[in-house]
Automatic annotation (TrEMBL):
Coiled coil: none annotated. It comes from the Bacteria. SUPFAM superfamilies: P-loop containing nucleoside triphosphate hydrolases (SSF52540). Pfam families: ABC_tran. This is ABC transporter ATP-binding protein. Belongs to the ABC transporter superfamily. Keywords: ATP-binding, Nucleotide-binding, Translocase, Transport. One of its GO terms (molecular function) is ATP binding. The keyword Acyltransferase does not apply. Residues 5-224 form the ABC transporter domain. InterPro entries: AAA+_ATPase (IPR003593), ABC_transporter-like_ATP-bd (IPR003439), ABC_transporter-like_CS (IPR017871), MacB-like_ATP-bd (IPR017911), P-loop_NTPase (IPR027417).
Length: 224
């Protein structure tokens, strides 16, 4: 089984207001195609860890590998390229551009990567919307759709560059239970049917139980 993501001896400190050792010797691997969840009490360091794993934070000790390539220590520009190409994100809040259409929002990360023509990107974006059963919303403004629909658009946007892994920080946290189930089931389907690698932080034990593996954190450490 090949490894998509690996964390080796990750330690992280916050220096203000006082020195605080927030992540303590984090080690784990994520196999390609696995659906992994991270759980743990509020404040144990889940978001801080996800921020490092998603390459958005470079201020840590230890090594991070993506597709067996060392990410740590690369230039900001290279890391930004790798992130855009290989990692898709879904946050608790969707962060869609409200004045743009659904289709334009989904196209954005591919435009940024600038490796395909406008027409190809548009075609890819429509395909992702179709996978998520929201192709009928393509021309609508992002501000004019429901919360559950917005989160599905955010997933389509995360998929647009065919990333190696999708990461989510409480991706169902801001939704009512019906829409939370719906979004979780989309992740589950992407994992089961498309073989996607997924890593989500969640407080929901029922959701976590349906993933392939639960990483349990406590006080900045992985305990299980
Ligand atoms: N920029 C910062 N400076 C100092 N301390 C911070 C900073 N960001 C987070 N912390 C602290 O680090 C700890 C871990 O925070 P983090 O957000 O990673 O926890 P979490 O497990 O994701 O919590 P939650 O489930 O509530 O989102 C907390 O004690 C938090 O107060």
């Amino acid at each position: 089984m090949s490894t998509v993501l690996e964390a080796k001896h990750i330690n992280k400190y916050f220096r203000k207001p006082t020195l605080f050792h927030v992540l303590k010797d984090i080690n784990f691997k994520i196999n390609r195609g696995d659906f992994t969840s991270i759980m743990g009490k509020s404040g144990c360091g889940k978001s801080t860890l996800l921020y490092i794993l998603s390459t958005m934070d470079s201020d840590y000790e230890g090594q991070l590998y993506l597709n067996n390539e060392l990410i740590t220590g690369n230039s900001r520009q290279k890391i930004s390229y790798i992130r855009n190409k290989h990692i898709g994100f879904v946050f608790q809040f969707h962060y869609l551009l409200s004045e743009f259409s659904v289709l334009e929002n989904v196209m954005l990360p591919a435009k940024k990567l600038a490796e395909k023509s406008y027409e190809e990107i548009e075609y890819d974006a429509m395909q992702k919307l179709t996978i998520l059963n929201i192709d009928h919303l393509a021309k609508k403004r992002a501000s004019r759709i429901s919360g559950g629909e917005k989160q599905r658009v955010a997933i389509a946007r995360a998929l647009i560059n065919n990333p190696s892994i999708i990461m989510g920080d409480e991706p169902t946290g801001n939704l009512d239970s019906y829409n939370a189930d719906n979004v979780f089931n989309i992740f589950k389907r992407l994992s089961d049917e498309e073989g996607l690698s997924l890593l989500i932080v969640t407080h929901d034990q029922d959701f976590a139980n349906q993933t392939d593996r639960i990483i349990q954190m406590s006080d900045g450490r992985i305990i299980e």
